[in-house]
Design goal:
Layout lengths: L18 H12 L16 H16 L3 E4 L5 E5 L8 E7 L12 H16 L8 E6 L12 H6 L19 H7 L17 E9 L4 H5 L3 E7 L1 E10 L3 E2 L11 H23 L3 E11 L5 E2 L2 E10 L2 H21 L3 E9 L3 E2 L2 H13 L4 E6 L4 H5 L5 E6 L15 H20 L3
Parallel strand pairs: 3-4, 3-5, 5-15, 6-14
Antiparallel strand pairs: 1-2, 2-4, 6-13, 6-15, 7-11, 7-12, 8-10, 9-11
Helix pairs in contact: 1-3, 3-11, 7-8
The protein binds glyoxylic acid (GLV) and manganese (II) ion (2 copies).
């Protein structure tokens, strides 16, 4: 990295992160929840996910950081700078994963930030303000359909009503898990963090798409994050004997659901053709009742995720999907209920921080791409209470939420180094 004249509070580092240590710790985290074909499964609040957080706390303790774990399990590890009362620069991500995901979605941002902070601390780099590594709980929506849980709580973005339909595949309610941790409607606000204690939030993450690799760039600098509208469509027909019920007498909920699934693909494709790929729609989970070979399906629940970088496009498509669900149900004389899960607005990230990260890349001769993020991140929530920036590193063939997710170790290390430079500059600017 570039060298700048020595100053009391340097704004550019002469330091290199410890690549071996970063990759060693990333590897240790990725072994927790490892399954077939190198897949990783650490669903939020599972034993595996808890173990990954324990290991992280151990690493943070080894680094001599001051650790705070809030009531839901978000972890904050702090190194106080010159002025411990000043607002802190936060950097982090999450450790929970999807089912059979990869090793990098989340941990790269947590361990990458930890490595940057360890490097600053062990080299006793003078910092004007505190720097914290943060690990947010439950970024993935894979268990409850509810994403960025920990960061949403920190940002004060959770209403208990929003959690009504957040239920996992085994019928466990997110609300009940929160209650078991002593988190209720009345004390949700105690998890929020006073924005005046935060100077900025930085998140290093794998791109999870093909742009950087295709363009031969090493770093992505994120302008904005696409937001999801998520809801369930529950079709209720009638369960019947599959051998005796004539075709014309059936009220098959699965056939109705299948029509809606196909419609979602069609409408998003059509819309994207006109609007240049700006909308995506997915039915990623489905429950069928009774769900046996010899019964006409009586009830089907679809989990629907529609995302776009433009709110109007997303709202338009989401309402078309809901209208079509009603039409399909009417035509088949069955019922459909729409259960809202979460509706979010696309989030712009901070322009000043974007300029800063561009400048750091320019100074260090790093090829970067300025780009939006199609995936959701904790930065979406943090951007609501502070200045937020994201740094992407390339994903091989753009694959993510899949065991083949891969980012070159060198690229991960470069991302952590850019993060370190950004942390130093933010911690030591005079603003
Ligand atoms: C998080 O990975 C998401 O679903 O975008
Ligand atoms: Mn993910
Ligand atoms: Mn992620």
């Amino acid at each position: 990295m570039a060298f700048m004249a020595k100053a009391l509070f340097p704004v550019t580092s002469e330091l290199a992160i410890n690549k071996r240590r970063l990759l060693r710790d990333l590897n240790a985290i990725s072994r927790i929840g490892i399954g077939d074909h190198g897949s990783v499964t650490r669903l939020v609040f599972s034993i595996k996910e808890l173990r990954s957080r324990q290991l992280l706390i151990h690493l943070m303790r080894q680094a001599g950081l001051k650790i705070h774990v809030d009531r839901i399990g978000n972890i904050f590890a702090r190194w106080n700078g010159h002025n411990p009362k000043a607002p802190a620069v936060l950097a982090g991500s999450h450790l929970d994963t999807v089912v059979q995901g990869g090793k990098f979605d989340g941990p790269v941002g947590v361990i990458g930030a930890l490595e940057a902070l360890r490097t600053l601390k062990e080299n006793k780099v003078p910092l004007r303000c505190p720097v914290e590594v943060v690990c947010f709980v439950g970024e993935e929506s894979s268990r409850f359909g509810y994403s960025t849980l920990g960061s949403s709580l920190v940002a004060g973005e959770v209403q208990i009503e929003d959690l009504t339909h957040a239920v996992d595949a085994h019928g466990t309610k997110l609300e009940d898990i929160l209650a078991s941790m002593g988190i209720y409607r009345d004390n949700l606000a105690s998890l929020t963090r006073d924005p005046s204690t935060i100077k900025a939030y930085l998140e290093l993450h794998i791109e999870q798409g093909p742009i950087l690799e295709t363009k031969g760039k090493k770093i992505g600098l994120v302008t904005s994050i696409a937001a999801p509208t998520r809801f369930k469509a529950v079709f209720t027909g009638q369960a019947d004997h599959s051998g005796t019920t004539p075709m014309e007498m059936r009220k098959d909920a699965l056939v109705a659901a299948a029509k809606l699934i196909t419609y979602i693909e069609e409408v998003c494709r059509e819309f994207s053709a006109v609007e240049k790929g700006r909308i995506v729609g997915t039915v990623g989970a489905m429950k069928i009742e009774p769900g046996v070979m010899n019964a006409v399906p009586g009830k089907v629940e679809l989990s629907i995720d529609i995302r776009s970088i433009t709110a109007e496009a997303k709202d338009r498509v989401a309402s078309q999907v809901k209208d079509r669900a009603a039409e399909i149900a009417r035509a088949r004389d069955i019922d459909v209920e729409i259960l809202p899960i979460r509706e979010e607005l696309p989030v712009p990230l901070n322009e000043e921080l974007l300029l800063l990260t561009k400048h750091i890349c320019d100074q260090n001769g790093i090829a970067y791409e300025v780009m939006p993020s199609g995936a959701g991140h904790d930065a979406m929530q943090m951007a609501k209470i502070t200045r937020a920036a994201m740094i992407f590193v390339p994903s091989k063939r753009g694959i993510s939420h899949n065991p083949s997710e891969w980012t070159e170790p060198e690229d991960i290390c470069l991302g952590s180094q850019v993060l370190l430079e950004t942390m130093i500059r933010l911690a030591n600017d005079e603003g």
